[in-house]
Amino acid sequence: QQQVKQSPQSLIVQKGGISIINCAYENTAFDYFPWYQQFPGKGPALLIAIRPDVSEKKEGRFTISFNKSAKQFSLHIMDSQPGDSATYFCAAEGFDDYKLSFGAGTTVTVRA
Amino acid sequence: ETGVTQSPTHLIKTRGQQVTLRCSSQSGHNTVSWYQQALGQGPQFIFQYYREEENGRGNFPPRFSGLQFPNYSSELNVNALELDDSALYLCASSQPGTGLGYTFGSGTRLTVV
Description:
The complex is a heterodimer of chains A (112) and B (113). Chain A has 112 residues and is mainly beta. Chain A contains no helices and eleven strands.
C-alpha cells in the first residue's frame, strides 16, 4: 500500500515551460518531504525538501508548495531545460522514523 | 568527501542462488539504509542499520538480511533468489540529527533468471 501518491506518471514540457508534479499523503506523522531526481542508471539525488512549518520553499528554478490541511505537496520546475529530463520522486518521512516512503515517480521530458 | 559507493554495478544470478551486495557509506555517515527499486517504480524500504544493528525493517521476507561493519559499510544478502527479486538495489547513508537527509548510491542492478 503506497503511503505517498504521485501524479502524473509522466509529462512532456517545452523548453522554458513549467513542470508541475503533485503528491498526496495520508500519514499525519510525516514531517519531512523531500523530492529526488533520478537519471537513468543512477541513484536518486536530493533536489529540495520541505518541513510542514512552511508553505513554500524555493531553490533556484525548483519550488515546493506544501498544503498541510489538504495533505498535499507539489514540485514546480520553472524555465524547464532539457537537462531537467529525468524521473522525479516525492517522498515522506516521519519524526523518529527511519525510512522514506516514495511516490511512484514522474518521468519528465523537456523538449528543446 | 566521498559519496556512497556500491558494488557490483550489475550482476546476473539464477533463481535459488544467493547474492551479496556491498555498500560504502558517505564519510561521516553512521546509518545505512537499503531500498529495492523495481523497474518503473519508486524505491521500497528494505531495512536500516545503525551502529551495526538493524534499526527498522520494511515488508520484506527474512531471506533479505544485512550487516553493518564498524567502518559503517554494509552488505545486503538475499537468499533463495526469486525472479521478482530482479531490481535496482539502492544503498543510502545518513547522519541522523543533521537534517541533511539521505545520500544514495548509484545502485546494483540485479537480474534473476
